[in-house]
């Protein structure tokens, strides 16, 4: 099978496609024929920053069909269509097949293609956990979502609206009308305005940018007792001084129960999935570089099998 490896740390030129043998499954694993794999910012960060020791197969998000099951697998059968976010330490989504434990997968949304389905797991779980597990967002509250046109941001916007929150989104000018069509109550052009010029008294800020400037502006617009949640840089203590807020950074965890809730919302057409572009597996380097530019609207997906 084909698989995408990091051969060395530090450069996109170290990303290569090689032929290797199919994985051999353990008793509690399933073998998945991957039909599509989601590309996330963490994948280019791993490529450039060396999160994993090479050689390492990249990728967390999969959509595909089960080709074989171990004798201890209880909930799935051969032929089932599934999605999932793989075990962080192993990853290996950028390939034609992967072995994974059933606790990392759930059934694919019936109304989505494989490419659309592969865009869901990591981004949607990150948005869900950030808003609800860490931000404790409630109906009627105001939430600020930075970079709302990105893969995580679009899920966060839709989950917040589903919950009944008032959403203030930040984006560049080209995405203002788009985000309003998705459900944002207000959209602030971050290239022209400071957050503090346009909003205040927020209950939650969900931040996937987290530069010092963005963090400070975020702290300023939160009401006393408000919650700041970052998925990138942690809250800077020197900036927090004087603010009566809680601030945290978190990393998502694969959670099939939450993913099943998200799939239900997608099947009920309460949440849409946005795929900006697909690349063949053999162009994984180009896909990573595209995501690295940071201007994607929604997600980028690899399609190993047509």
UniProtKB/TrEMBL annotation:
Name by which UniProt lists this protein: NADP-dependent oxidoreductase
InterPro entries for this protein: ADH-like_N, ER, GroES-like_sf, NAD(P)-bd_dom_sf, YIM1/Zinc_Alcohol_DH_Fams
SUPFAM superfamilies from the UniProt entry: GroES-like, NAD(P)-binding Rossmann-fold domains
MF GO annotations: oxidoreductase activity
Domain Enoyl reductase (ER): 10-302
A family per Pfam: ADH_zinc_N_2
């Amino acid at each position: 099978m084909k698989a995408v490896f990091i051969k060395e740390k530090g450069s996109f030129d170290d990303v290569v496609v090689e032929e290797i043998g199919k994985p051999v499954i353990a008793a509690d694993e399933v073998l998945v024929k991957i039909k599509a794999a989601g590309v996330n910012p963490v994948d280019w960060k791993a490529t450039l920053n060396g999160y994993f020791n090479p050689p390492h197969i990249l990728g967390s998000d999969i959509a595909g069909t089960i080709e074989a099951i171990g004798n201890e697998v209880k909930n799935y059968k051969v032929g089932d269509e599934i999605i999932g976010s793989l075990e962080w330490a192993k990853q290996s989504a950028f390939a034609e097949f992967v072995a994974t434990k059933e606790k990392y997968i759930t059934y694919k949304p019936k109304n989505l293609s494989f490419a659309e389905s592969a865009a869901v797991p990591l981004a949607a779980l990150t948005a869900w956990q950030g808003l609800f597990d860490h931000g404790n967002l409630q109906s009627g509250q105001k939430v600020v979502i930075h970079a709302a046109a990105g893969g995580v941001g679009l899920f966060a916007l839709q989950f917040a609206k589903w919950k009944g929150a008032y959403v203030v989104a930040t984006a560049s000018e080209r995405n203002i009308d788009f985000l309003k069509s998705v459900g944002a109550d207000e959209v602030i052009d971050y290239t022209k305005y400071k957050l503090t010029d346009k909003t205040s008294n927020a209950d939650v800020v969900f931040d996937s940018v987290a530069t010092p400037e963005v963090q400070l502006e975020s702290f300023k617009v939160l009401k006393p007792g408000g919650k700041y949640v970052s998925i990138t840089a942690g809250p800077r203590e020197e900036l927090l001084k004087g603010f009566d807020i809680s601030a945290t950074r978190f990393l998502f965890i694969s959670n099939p129960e939450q993913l099943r809730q998200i799939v239900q919302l997608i099947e009920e057409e309460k949440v849409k999935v946005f795929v900006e572009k697909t690349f063949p597996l053999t162009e994984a380097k180009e896909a990573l570089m595209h995501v690295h530019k940071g201007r994607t609207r929604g997600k980028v997906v690899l399609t190993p099998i047509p």
